[in-house]
Design a protein that fits this description.
Oligomer: single chain
Strand content: under 5%
Shape: globular
Number of strands: 2
Radius of gyration: 13 Å
Mean pLDDT: 85
Largest sheet: 2 strands, antiparallel
Distance between the termini: 22 Å
Low-confidence stretches: none
Order of helices and strands: EEHHHHH
Length: about 90
């Protein structure tokens, strides 16, 4: 698995997944994210899915994905998916 340009294997992958999961829970509580918004964040942060891939994986339309992302960005006060990923990464490092 590659995250932020770093190749992860075995134990380091598990540790990274645990950190990202903990960060996601922190963000969920801090920003009052819904279960579905959390699903999107997990797919984005763990797999780097784009909108089309998110729609397929979650069995929703791309329009719905965009609405969820817009709501997440409003709640987190981010302006782009890049800022959103940076927020997730910072939370995972705390």
């Amino acid at each position: 698995m590659t995250i932020m340009g770093l190749s992860l294997t075995g134990t380091s992958r598990d540790a990274t997944n645990q950190r990202l999961a903990k960060a996601a829970m922190t963000l969920q509580k801090k920003f009052h994210l819904t279960r579905r918004e959390m699903e999107l964040l997990k797919k984005i942060s763990l797999y780097g899915y784009n909108n089309r891939e998110l729609a397929r994986a979650l069995r929703i339309s791309e329009h719905t994905v965009k609405n969820h992302l817009k709501n997440i960005m409003i709640k987190t006060r981010t302006n782009s998916s890049r800022e959103l990923l940076a927020l997730i990464l910072r939370a995972s490092l705390e």
